[in-house]
Design brief:
- The chain has about 80 residues and is mainly α.
- The chain is about 85% helix and about 0% strand.
- Helix 1 packs antiparallel against helix 2.
- The longest helix has about 45 residues.
Length: about 80
């Protein structure tokens, strides 16, 4: 499960970077372009980054829990 969470986190990070590059390089003008660019830069980008970061943190926690479970099952931890 941790591998899946890490992979999804990386995909979201890549998507954020790609979208940001596209938003900066497009020759899209007009009110719709202004609204989208403002929304992307003010909230949507941060939300995507936040989700990616959280998935990475959950993956780290899952690995730590799995390691603890393996250690407990192997009798490597004192009671």
């Amino acid at each position: 499960m941790a591998v899946t969470f890490d992979g999804t986190s990386q995909q979201l990070t890549t998507a954020e970077s790609t979208i940001t590059s596209l938003v900066r390089s497009l020759r899209w003008v007009g009110p719709d372009a202004d609204v989208f660019t403002t929304r992307w830069n003010s909230s949507m980008r941060a939300q995507l980054t936040s989700v990616a970061d959280r998935l990475g943190a959950v993956a780290k926690d899952l690995r730590a829990q799995a390691d603890a479970q393996r250690a407990a099952s192997a009798g490597d931890t004192p009671i």
